[in-house]
Recover the amino acids of this structure.
């Protein structure tokens, strides 16, 4: 911990101010502030641009003790207010650390729920002749679409937001800008996630092929997703603003660590894509309500309008921050500076550009060439492979030069981060194979394999990030590297099993959504049953790994809470 | 000197422009269409071309903003503002009720759109109220560097509005809830309910006044639990419906005169 005394004040106005800040030296250490001195009233009128109240925490490199005062009114409560109950403190918090735990725990729980849904769908796929678990094709479709929504919008993105709201501001050397807006974003997302889950559970979801879902429940799901998008967008704004305008003095964008840089690029892309997804859901909602749907709100059309968010190229935007995490983790654990830093900054920015997928909406295909077969989409699918290869090459170079520092037992987070980067590379390769027109793989389970690999990479990288910065986010006690590594290997193994099996099933013409009978599966007599067993086992292993991670996280949190009390 | 942010956005802008032109030529555009934004010929696939050109425009705007504000560099801002030192970033703010209540308001709007217009209107009212409160909180925090002065400034302005409004809403909601409970009870039962509830409130008030050392949290807890109990009972009885009212003189008369049936 280091701190810094803030002396000089413009116009000599606030000379008595002194504020305590910890944790800026490393950019990572816990930020805990304490009141040390009251602020004198000045004769200076407040500035409209930089009001005196806002001139409390100086940006820039500090090597002196900083003290600060928490600004609040009677409707606000200090975290240390002894009159506040724990519940009051929890729901009124604007502390990024607390918010990150809500994002992180909520996101990883959703990922776990998505894995359960994926496993159940995998079991059902073993016996395509009858729907034993689900009521029929509509029920199966609801779970199948639920697992993708849970993985992406309720799981991976919020979990990334957990890292973005805590790690990124510290890497920028400052505080999270708009912390109350970030708190509101977190609560909006949580409420929206709850509505989405309830919507799926009461026979809603994002439409069904047979039109057998409940209309009102479907509307509730759509509205829940709209709130989820709103929460994620607001949080993205806070994070991007922090990176762009909250850096300490002297720190340029080129000086940002890779996690902050990739989050900047990814959050910019999210802010470009998520409003389009919101527009899709609004269109579906408006058409769904009140009278028989004309087009956009038809039960069998809703999923196709939002499905672009869960496939090439939009799915890659989940992997981008993971590449940044991997670069930072490997650089920190190998204890060598990353070479060719500028090349990697450009490569990650290019990866982000190629991830923009709002244009690839198959629902709005015009007669002729489908959007997924157009040159733009195909070129993007191929162009992203060398970009990913360049980034993984950068990682490999750092590993090579820092191999001696890693020793024979590399840290668990390094192993997971490397596996995540390799899975991203594998995912881009599968994405390129998928768009080769003569193979006709767009509607097959190769799409599912692509989703599994990229999503699995994202989860693995997020886990590595949580573990790497876990000491600062949760506390130093109760870390279990062995269990974490075991969970990470299970997540990686499960992802590979499911991804590779679905890849070969797709090459054997199995549909992405198999339906509940052999004819809709598109694989009569093709002998993909064995591959489906392998894929189901992969889902089971992934589920086991995630459960183990949840256990590790819970034990870690419990140990530090016990220590705090 | 061009800033890093400008280089990032300008690079992405160029990529978007090239992608748009490429998309145009590979989807049936004429020779000069994609490079003239469709002025001299067709652009091919309108959807992808329009999205990419629009993206390019937005990215160019980002780049111009980045270079105009020097990537929000603190020293550049100090120069613009005429300060010797770089301006300070914002302080860490205290806990606040507004974010969660704002989120609840937004959630109510969403649920209300699906379930019932009344919930939607309640959500709108919550969001409007939170918008005012949040704005005033932010304003008051910048009145001075002294949070006591800030607190006084906010209270002087908002308390005369908050207390009557919240009091009216609170009383109105409680009266409505109690009226639903009484209307759902039988004639005799309503008398008993009113008596018992009145006695409980009176007794609790005496108990609290007799023990001034009672922690504030406990008093708030008792009041919160009592209000929630009345609200829940009010909602339950409102859903279950009122007791039967028999109109005097049968169906032929539609005046307001009626007699109540005791069950």
């Amino acid at each position: 911990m280091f701190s810094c005394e803030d002396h000089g004040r413009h116009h000599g106005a606030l000379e008595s101010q002194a504020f305590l800040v910890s944790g800026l030296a490393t950019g990572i250490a816990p930020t805990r502030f304490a009141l040390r001195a009251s602020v004198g009233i000045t004769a200076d009128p407040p500035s409209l641009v930089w009001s005196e109240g806002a001139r409390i925490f100086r940006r820039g490199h500090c090597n002196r003790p900083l003290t600060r005062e928490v600004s609040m009114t009677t409707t606000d409560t200090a975290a240390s207010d002894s009159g506040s109950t724990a519940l009051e403190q929890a729901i009124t918090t604007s502390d990024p650390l607390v918010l990150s735990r809500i994002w992180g725990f909520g996101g990883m729980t959703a990922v776990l729920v998505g894995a359960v849904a994926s496993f159940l769908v995998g079991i059902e796929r073993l016996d395509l002749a009858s729907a034993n678990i689900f009521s029929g094709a509509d029920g199966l479709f609801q779970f199948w679409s639920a697992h993708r929504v849970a993985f992406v919008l309720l799981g991976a993105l919020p979990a990334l937001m957990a890292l973005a709201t805590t790690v990124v501001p510290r890497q920028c050397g400052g505080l999270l800008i708009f912390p109350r807006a970030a708190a509101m974003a977190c609560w909006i997302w949580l409420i929206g996630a709850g509505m989405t889950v309830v919507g799926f559970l009461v026979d809603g979801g994002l439409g069904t092929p047979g039109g057998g879902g409940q209309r009102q429940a479907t509307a509730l799901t759509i509205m829940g997703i709209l709130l989820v998008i709103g929460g994620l967008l607001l949080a993205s704004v806070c994070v991007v603003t922090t990176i762009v305008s909250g850096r300490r003095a002297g720190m340029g964008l080129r000086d940002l660590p890779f996690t902050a840089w990739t989050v900047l690029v990814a959050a910019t892309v999210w802010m470009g894509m998520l409003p389009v997804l919101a527009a899709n859901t609004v269109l579906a909602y408006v058409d769904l309500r009140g009278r028989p749907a004309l087009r956009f709100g038809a039960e069998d059309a809703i999923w196709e309008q939002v499905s672009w968010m869960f496939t090439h190229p939009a799915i890659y935007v989940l992997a981008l921050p993971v590449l940044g995490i991997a670069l930072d983790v490997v650089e920190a654990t190998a204890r060598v500076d990353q070479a060719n830093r500028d090349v990697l900054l450009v490569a990650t920015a290019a990866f982000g550009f190629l991830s923009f997928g709002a244009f690839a909406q198959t629902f709005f295909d015009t007669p002729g060439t489908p959007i997924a077969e157009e040159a733009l989409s195909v070129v993007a699918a191929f162009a992203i492979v060398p970009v990913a290869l360049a980034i993984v090459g950068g990682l490999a170079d750092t590993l090579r030069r820092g191999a001696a520092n890693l020793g024979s037992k590399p840290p668990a987070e390094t192993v997971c981060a490397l596996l995540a980067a390799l899975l991203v590379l594998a995912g881009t390769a599968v994405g390129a194979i998928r768009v080769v027109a003569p193979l006709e793989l767009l509607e097959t389970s190769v799409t599912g394999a692509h989703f599994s690999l990229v999503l699995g990479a994202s989860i693995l990288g997020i886990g590595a990030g949580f573990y790497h910065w876990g000491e600062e986010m949760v506390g130093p006690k109760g870390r279990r590297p062995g269990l974490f590594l075991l969970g990470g290997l299970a997540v990686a193994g499960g992802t590979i099993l499911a991804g590779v099996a679905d890849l070969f099933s797709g090459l054997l013409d199995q549909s992405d959504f198999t339906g509940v009978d052999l004819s809709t599966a598109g694989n009569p007599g093709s002998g993909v049953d064995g591959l489906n067993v392998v894929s189901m086992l992969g889902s089971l292993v992934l589920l086991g790994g995630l459960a183990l991670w949840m256990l590790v996280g819970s034990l870690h949190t419990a140990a530090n809470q016990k220590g705090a009390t | 000197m061009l800033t890093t942010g400008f280089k990032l956005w300008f690079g992405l802008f160029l990529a978007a422009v090239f992608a748009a032109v490429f998309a145009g030529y590979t989807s049936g555009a004429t020779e000069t269409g994609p490079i003239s934004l469709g002025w001299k010929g067709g652009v091919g696939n309108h959807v992808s071309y329009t999205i990419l050109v629009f993206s390019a425009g937005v990215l160019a705007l980002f780049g111009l903003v980045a270079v105009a504000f020097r990537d929000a560099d603190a020293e550049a801002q100090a120069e613009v503002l005429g300060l010797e030192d770089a301006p300070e970033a914002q302080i860490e703010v205290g806990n606040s009720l507004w974010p969660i209540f704002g989120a609840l308001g937004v959630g109510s709007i969403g649920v209300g759109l699906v379930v019932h217009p009344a919930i939607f209107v309640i959500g709108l009212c919550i969001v409007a109220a939170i918008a005012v409160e949040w704005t005033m909180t932010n304003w008051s925090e910048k009145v001075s560097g002294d949070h006591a002065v800030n607190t006084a400034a906010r209270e002087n302005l908002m308390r005369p509005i908050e207390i009557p409004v919240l009091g009216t809403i609170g009383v109105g909601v409680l009266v409505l809830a109690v009226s639903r409970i009484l209307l759902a009870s039988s004639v005799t039962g309503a008398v008993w309910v009113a008596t018992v509830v009145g006695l409980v409130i009176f007794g609790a008030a005496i108990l609290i006044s007799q023990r001034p050392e009672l922690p504030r949290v406990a008093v708030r807890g008792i009041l919160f639990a009592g209000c929630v109990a009345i609200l829940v009972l009010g909602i339950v009885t409102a859903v279950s419906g009122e007791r039967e009212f028999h109109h005097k003189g049968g169906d032929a008369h539609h005046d307001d005169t009626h007699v109540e049936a005791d069950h």
